[in-house]
TrEMBL record:
Gene3D superfamilies in alphabetical order: 3.30.70.20, 3.40.50.360
Originating organism: Parabacteroides segnis
Coiled coil feature spans: none
Transmembrane domains' residue ranges: 98-118, 180-201, 260-277, 283-304
Keyword Membrane on entry: yes
InterPro entries attached to this UniProt entry: 4Fe4S_Fe-S-bd, 4Fe4S_Fe_S_CS, EFR1-like, Flavoprotein-like_sf
Residues in the signal sequence: none
Family annotation (Pfam families): Fer4_9
NCBIfam families, sorted: ferrodoxin_EFR1 (NF038196)
Protein name: 4Fe-4S binding protein
Domain called 4Fe-4S ferredoxin-type: residue spans: 202-231, 238-259
Keywords: Iron, Iron-sulfur, Membrane, Metal-binding, Transmembrane, Transmembrane helix
Length: 343
């Protein structure tokens, strides 16, 4: 078995979890006198693809969004020219500390789909490795505590060393195989998220009255999904829900529209009940499903626009903020601590 001599790492990161995994792997490579380069997928600099030679081990690291790689990562993978390099796919999933354990996330179809695309181009997949890093999905839960974050960092750093050791010696590493049953079962949700769900979540964020229009969120958005409308940040459907804007805002002015979600769900339920119970009681379930989602999505687009306009009023903006869990201090924020030292 031939030891690896050159590694090229491509990563996409919102709050820094995947960037941290990339830097840890690079550190292991350098400690073993292995040449290593790291490139940010979001930079969209095609020149880095020219750095790949046939001897390089390619590593692609990305978070899991809706049990799949986000669109920006999949688009990047599709942009690869044909080749025969060895490739290791990695991901970061939402991990939480419970006792002395880290709850495992779900990869879904991320590895299946990406491996299929790359194999068709001639690449040899020699590894699929998930890492359960601190969850940054603050639209759903509060930020992890510092002790939990440190615990998760330590566990994953030692896992990186173990996985690097196997790959360095030329061995394959399919750590993801232990989750294959769960990932297959969750695949329909992954497809639904890619087609519909990510657009719904793209309209999850708004800038509260604390926003001072510094435009940091606009400048740092890795997919250029935020633009300024009526002197206030506005999230477009390009948003990947990577949480970078919310977690990096220095004033914690970016919040989740929990109140708007509730209004939309109630209105959709009311309209659909009237439509399918009183007017069209015998419509096939597939038609009900499609029409319900069209109503939901239409209400989302319209009411998000109305909310954005209404936020110009300070009183209304305050009321909207009070309906968001992310407005309160106890909810907190999370971004990976790149300066954290591990033993």
């Amino acid at each position: 078995m031939k030891k690896i001599e050159k590694v090229i790492i491509f990563y996409f990161s919102g709050t820094g979890n995947t960037r941290m995994i990339a830097s840890w792997f690079s550190k292991c490579a350098l400690e073993n006198n292995t040449y290593c380069q790291i490139f940010d997928i979001a930079s969209k600099n095609d020149l880095y693809l020219k750095e790949i030679d046939s001897e390089s081990l390619i590593i692609i690291i990305s978070p899991i969004h809706g049990f799949n790689y986000p669109k920006i990562t999949l688009d990047f993978i599709r942009s690869f020219q044909k080749g025969n390099n060895q490739v290791v796919l990695m991901n970061t999933r939402a991990g939480m500390k419970i006792g002395n354990m880290i709850t495992p996330g779900l990869t879904g179809i991320a590895f299946f789909l990406s491996s299929f695309i790359l194999k068709k181009k001639g690449y040899n997949i020699i590894g699929q490795i998930p890492f359960d890093m601190p969850s940054n999905w603050l639209s759903i839960h509060p930020a992890p505590r510092k002790e939990a974050i440190r615990f998760i960092y330590e566990k994953n750093y030692h896992r990186i060393q173990s996985h690097f050791g196997k790959l360095y010696l030329g061995k394959t590493d399919f750590a993801s195989n232990r989750d294959i049953i769960q990932d297959l079962l969750i695949s329909p949700i992954a497809l639904a998220y890619y087609v519909v769900g990510r657009f719904f979540l793209a309209k999850s964020y708004y800038a509260s009255s604390k926003c001072n229009n510094c435009s940091l969120c606009i400048r740092q958005c890795p997919v250029q999904a935020i633009r300024m409308i009526n002197a206030r940040p506005f999230w477009s459907l390009k948003c990947e829900s990577c949480m970078k804007c919310m977690n990096y805002c220095p004033l914690q002015a970016i919040e989740t529209t929990h109140g708007l979600w509730l209004v939309i769900i109630v209105l959709t339920s009311t309209v659909c009940t009237f439509l399918f119970h009183d007017l069209l009681p015998n419509v096939y379930w597939i038609i009900r499903f499609l029409v319900s989602n069209i109503i939901l999505f239409t209400l989302l687009l319209v009411l998000y626009r109305i909310q954005h306009w209404a936020l110009r009023n300070k009183f209304i903006a305050k009321v909207i903020s009070l309906t968001s869990l992310t407005h309160y201090k106890f909810w907190g924020r999370y971004k990976a601590n790149q300066n954290h030292t591990v033993q």
